[in-house]
Write a structure and sequence with these properties.
Largest sheet: 4 strands, antiparallel
Mean pLDDT: 89
Shape: elongated
Distance between the termini: 19 Å
Structural class: alpha+beta
Number of strands: 10
Oligomer: single chain
Length: 436
């Protein structure tokens, strides 16, 4: 039941996110006088609809997107010079212009979308993605301020009993021939909180690990708080080869693809993790960091899709950092909601974080400058506005509207590609899922 509740939460919030995204387009369009004939959440057959005023509001069967129909999206033939339709691509563009013109009711040509100025077009087309960003901002704000973010502390959660070679199996246990770990040998215990190391007060886990790594194999005084009492000990780290990671926590590889290592001081201790509530002032930074990471993923999307296809239909194991679709997100939500060893607060925080990242992904993905995505319409509006500004600066007549219907064949191609990627994600998430 808990698993099902987690999945339902994702489905409901996804539908709300789609609905709010389309409201982000619809509201400014109506404010600018454009007639909005349809507002739909989902694709495919209509499950329910109701007409209010001049707009039909409805819910469709496939909850993988939505749309608002803005009357006059494409300029009619006469406004763009009656271009010939002597090729298949040009016929597609002409048909799109004719269909758009048929939606314009008599006497309402001025209410067509193509008549809007460039700034107004940008407001309408960016309204949807920005709405997703606002949703993510709210969700991440609730997580950071209300629940807190995971933070490592210098309170020890575990103390290793031996030093296991870095090239050993990660699941390998201590063997009689393994040397004792320095932390255990010095008397450190789980639950100890490190107060100072080498005479320097310790305020964070990162500060402690940096100090340990720099110590080498020198005997070093350490003070811990144990059950309210300060206990002074002496530790002698061992020098061990440990993997090198970049600022994003990703392994640094050498020219042959093997992770680089470095010799560092090692005690064999690990931190505790707590949920630390953040200031509201920290939320913009958290949103910006999450957005930038999402942009990095979207920027490498083609290679990630290729990797996903290879792991799905080949022998390679699927990477835990692989892209996932709606099915995979629903699976994550179900596993989080049904986890028995996690507090309800962490469950709620994790679910909200997933939904926030989903909305940031919608924000970033929709800004890709390709039709039929919002970014494609933004690019067309910017091109139109740029032409007009150049003409104004050169003292030439104001050019007519940009024939954005020329992009319809490209929109069809992108739609097919996105559909294929969507099917691949569904197949991979069902038959080769990522376990968390």
């Amino acid at each position: 039941m808990a698993y099902l509740v987690g999945v339902l939460i994702v489905v409901v919030v996804l539908l709300l996110s789609i609905g709010l995204h389309e409201i982000g387009h619809m509201v400014p369009a109506k404010r600018f006088g454009v007639r909005v004939s349809q507002y739909m959440v989902g694709f495919g057959p209509t499950l329910w609809s109701r007409t209010k005023g001049e707009t039909e509001y409805g819910l469709k069967a496939i909850p993988l997107g939505g749309y608002v129909r803005l009357v006059g999206m494409y300029a009619p033939d006469e406004a763009v010079g009656n271009p010939p339709a002597n090729t298949w691509f040009r016929r597609l563009s002409r048909d799109a212009r004719l269909a758009s013109a048929e939606e314009i009711q008599p006497g309402e040509d001025a209410r067509a979308f193509y008549h809007l100025s460039t700034p107004k077009k940008l407001v309408v087309m960016l309204g949807g993605p920005v709405m997703n960003l606002v949703i993510a901002f709210v969700l991440l704000g609730i997580v950071a301020v209300g629940f807190g973010t995971p933070t490592t502390t210098p309170t020890l959660s575990t103390v290793s009993q031996c030093v296991i070679p870095s090239d050993a199996d990660p699941d390998r246990t201590c063997q009689p021939t393994d040397p004792a770990a320095p932390g255990a040998a010095a008397g450190l215990l789980p639950g100890d909180t490190v107060v100072s190391y080498d005479g320097v007060l310790i305020e964070s886990w990162d500060q402690l690990t940096t100090a340990i790594r720099a110590t080498g194999d020198e005997a070093t005084p350490i003070v811990v708080d144990r059950d309210g009492e300060q206990v002074s000990l002496t530790v002698t780290p061992v020098v061990a080869q440990r993997g090198v990671y970049d600022e994003n926590g990703q392994p640094v590889l050498d020219a042959s693809g093997v992770q680089e290592t470095q010799a560092v001081g090692f005690l064999g201790i690990s931190p505790s993790e707590v949920m630390e509530r953040q200031s509201p002032l920290a939320v913009p930074g958290i949103v910006a960091d999450t957005t930038w990471k999402t942009i990095s993923v979207v920027g490498t999307l083609p290679s990630r899709v290729v990797d996903l296809a290879q792991t799905t239909f080949g022998d390679k194991e699927r990477d835990v950092n692989s892209i996932v679709g709606v099915v995979g997100i629903g699976r994550f939500a179900g596993e989080i909601a049904s986890a028995n060893d996690v507090s309800e607060g962490i469950k709620a925080s994790s679910l909200l974080s997933i939904l926030a990242v989903l909305n940031i992904s919608l924000f970033v993905f929709n800004l890709i400058p390709l039709p039929p995505l919002d970014g494609g319409h933004v690019a067309a509006a910017l091109w139109e506005g740029g032409r007009r500004q150049v003409a104004r600066l050169r003292g030439r007549p104001r050019p007519g509207p940009f024939d954005s219907a020329k992009l319809v064949p490209l929109a069809y191609a992108v739609f097919v590609v996105l559909g294929a990627v969507g099917l691949l994600l569904v197949y991979a998430d069902v038959f080769n899922p990522i376990a968390i």
